[in-house]
Amino acid sequence: MKSGQQKMDWARQYMPVLGSIRREFEEKRPLEGVTIGMALHVEAKTAVLVETLAAGGAEVYITGCNPLSTQDDVAEALNEVAGVHCYAKRACSNEEYYAAINRVLDARPSITIDDGMDLIFELHTRRQDLLPGIIGGCEETTTGIHRLRSMADEGALKFPVIAVNDTPMKRHFDNVHGTGESSLSAIMATTNCLLAGKYLVVAGYGYCGRGVARKARGLGARVIVTEVDTRRALEAHMEGFAVMPMEAASALGEIFITTTGNTSILTERHFPLLRDGAILSNAGHFNVEIDVEWLEKNAGDIERRDGIDTYVLDGHKIHVLAEGRLVNLATPKGMGHPIEVMDLSFALQALSAKYILENGKSLVAGVYDVPNAIDEEVAGRKLTSLGITIDALSEEQEHYMSAWDIGT
Ligand SMILES: NC(=O)c1ccc[n+]([C@@H]2O[C@H](COP(=O)([O-])OP(=O)(O)OC[C@H]3O[C@@H](n4cnc5c(N)ncnc54)[C@H](O)[C@@H]3O)[C@@H](O)[C@H]2O)c1
Ligand SMILES: N[C@@H](CCSC[C@H]1O[C@@H](n2cnc3c(=O)[nH]cnc32)[C@H](O)[C@@H]1O)C(=O)O
User: Which helix H or strand E contains 36, and what residues bound it?
Assistant: First the structure.
C-alpha cells in the first residue's frame, strides 16, 4: 500500500462516526449526481470525509485551504478514489493556490465546503457567473464564519451557508481539544523544546486559546493569557492564568501561540521586547497574527531550518514556526488535529452537506446554524461508538423542566 493510502487507512480506523455515516451513504446514495467543491486541509482525515461524500454518490473536486498544509501523498491517494479529483499541492505559490481553487470551481459545484471561505470569496468576486448553480455551502472555521457574517450583513452573500464551526459538537471539541493538543504537539516535535517550567503566552482566550492554555498548563508550562475581551480575560484569570497586555507578556514569554483570528498580534512593537531565543507560533488564522512580513524586511540576518525561520534583530534571535501559518498543520511535523476530533467535525460536515442538498433551495441566502438534530445525532453516534449509555429524562422530569408554576 502507498503511503497516502496507509495514512487514510490509519485515520479511518479511529473515525467510527464518519464510518457509520459512510455505511448509510453507500446504501442510500443521498448525494447521487451532486458535484461538491471543497477547499480543506488535504490530509488523511479530510480524505476520509471526501471518500464518504463520494460513497454517497457525489463527484468531489477538492483543493487545499492553506499553502503549507497539504500532504502530497494523500492528495495522490485521493486522486485514485473513484469520483474524486484533487488539485492540492504542498508549498504552492499564491498563484498556484488560487489556480487550484479555480479548477475546483470550473467543475461547477452545486455545494461548497470551505475552511476559511476562499471558495466562497472567489465565487462572489471573480466567478459570479457560477452563483446561480450553487445550492449552498458549509464552512468549517471561526474566521470563515466571521467573514460570511460580514458578507451577509452587507447583503453580499448570495446563498445559504451552514456555520459548521459554531455548533457545540464542533467548537467544544475541535477548537478546544483539537487545537490544544495538535498545536502543542507540533511545537514540541518541531523544536524538541521542553514546555515544563516555561513561560508560554497564549494570545486570545476563545475556544482555541483555552484549549491551548489548559493543555500547556497540564504539561507544566507557566501560562500567560492576553485578551481584548473583558469577560474572557476574567475567565482566564479565574482559571488561574496570568492575564496581561501583550507588551508586558513579550518581555516574559519563551513560547508564544496566537489564537485570535485577528491581525497584528505580535508586531514590530513587540519584537524588540522579546527574550533572546523566543519561539513564536500561530494557531489562529492565515499568516497575519505574527507580522512575518516585517521580520522578513527588517531582520539583520535570517536562518532557515525545516519549519523554523530564525530572525536576528539587534543580536537577538526570534524563531518563527511554519512561516507564521497554522503551526498544527503547516510545520513539516504538524499532523493537524487528532483523528477522533476530526471524526466529529467531518461527521457534521457530511450530514450538513446532505442537509443543504435537501433544504438549500428553500433557504434564503444567509448564515445558518447546524440543525440541532444533526448536532445531537453526531454526539449520539459518538457515544454509541464508545459504548457509553446515558440516562433519559422521565416524564415527570420533562414536565418539571418545562413547568413555570411549580415553586418552592
Ligand atoms: N489551528 C487550528 O486548527 C484551528 C482550529 C479551529 C479554529 N482555528 C482558528 O483559530 C482562531 C480562533 O478561533 P476560536 O474559535 O478560538 O475563536 P474565538 O472567537 O472563540 O476566540 C478568539 C479570541 O481572541 C480574542 N482576541 C481578538 N483580538 C485579540 C487581540 N488583539 N489580542 C488578544 N486577544 C484577541 C477574542 O476576544 C476572542 O476571545 C480563528 O481564526 C479560527 O478560524 C484554528
Ligand atoms: N484556511 C485557514 C483557516 C484556518 S484552519 C482551522 C480549521 O482547520 C481544521 N483542521 C484542524 N486540523 C485539521 C486536520 O488535521 N485536517 C483537516 N482540518 C483540520 C479545523 O477544523 C479548524 O476549524 C488557514 O489555513 O489559515
Answer: strand 35-39
List the CATH number of the domain containing 117.
3.40.50.1480
At 254-269, the pLDDT tens digits run 999 999 999 999 999 9
Nearest CA to ligand 1 atom 19: 206
Of 289, 305, 330, the one marking the end of a domain is 330
Residue type, 110: S
pTM: predicted TM-score of the whole model, two decimal places: 0.96
Asked whether residue 408 is domain-assigned, the answer is no
Residues 28 and 127 in one domain: yes
Q: Comparing C-alpha atoms, which of 218, 285, 210, 275 is closest to residue 249?
A: 275
Q: Which residues line ligand 1 (CB under 6 A)?
A: 141-143, 171, 174-175, 179, 203-209, 226-229, 232, 259-262, 265, 283-285, 326, 328, 337
Q: How far is the CA of 178 from the centre of ligand 1 (A)?
A: 13
Host domain of residue 140: 3-170+336-386
Regarding whether 164 and 29 lie in a shared domain, the answer is yes
CA distance 20 to 195: 38
Ligand lying nearest the CA atom of residue 118: 2
In angstroms, the CA 403 to CA 31 distance is 42
For the stretch 157-215, pLDDT in tens is 999 999 999 999 999 999 999 999 999 999 999 999 999 999 999 999 999 999 999 99
281 with 215, same domain: the answer is yes
